[in-house]
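Recap slide: DUF4097 family beta strand repeat protein, sequence and predicted structure.
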Amino acid sequence: MNRFALSLPVLVFGTALAFPVCAAPLIQSSTSDDISLPALPEGGKISSINGDVSIGTSDGPLSVRTVSGDIHIKQSRGPLDVHTVNGTLDVDHAIAAVEIRSASGDVTLDHSDGAASIRSVSGDDTINHAARDVMIRSVNGDINLTLDAAPQMRTIDIGTVSGDMMIHLPHGFGGTFDIHLKQRRSDKTLPLEQSLGLTVQTGNWEKESGGSEEARTITATGKVGDGRDHVVIHSVTGTLKLVQD
C-alpha cells in the first residue's frame, strides 16, 4: 500500500513530461494603453478600447477588436477577424481568409492570399494584391482593388453607396462582368470608364423616389478572355474605372 502511494506522484510527474501542455492562443485586453505583440505562435484574441494595436506575426487564428485606435498587422498566417469602430487598419500580408468590419477609418490590405471580406461605413478600402475571392461593401468611401493572377476561379463582389472605384485587372485576365451604376442628370459623363469591350446600356431618365433630380441606370455586361472569374459591381453614387495592366 505504501509502495503504491509513493509511486503515484512519480507516475503523474512522468506523464506530464511525456505529454506537455500545448500553448494556448493569447487573450489580452486594454482600456487605454497601446498593445504591441511581436509574435503570436498560436494566434490570439486582442481587444482595446482606446489604444493602438500592433502585431508582428500571428500563426494561428487572430481576432482583434478595437473601439478607438489604429491597428497594424505585419503577417497573419491563420484566419484573421478584425472589428474596429474608429481607426485605421493596415495589414501587410494575410495568408489565410480575412474578415474585416470597420465603422470609421481607412482599411488597407496589402497582400491577400486567401479570401477577403471587407464591410465599412466610412473610409477608403484598399487591397493592393488579391489572389482569391473578394467581397467589399462600403457606404461612404473610395475603393481601390488590384487583382493578381489566380490559379482558380474566383468571385469579385463589390457594392457601394457613395464613392469612386478603381479596379486593376492583371494581364490576361478572364472574367464575366455584371455591372450596375447610376448616373444623375447633373453628371456630364458616364460613371464608367473601361476598354474591355463590355456592352454598355443606358436606361431612361427617371425621378427617383424622394429625389428631385433625374437619374438613369448604367449597366455593363460581357465576357473577357475565358470568362472564368465572376465580377459583380453595384454602385448608387460614384464612378468606376476598370484598368487592365
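Residues 198 and 222 are 5 Å apart (CA to CA).
The chain is about 5% helix and 60% strand.
(End of recap.)
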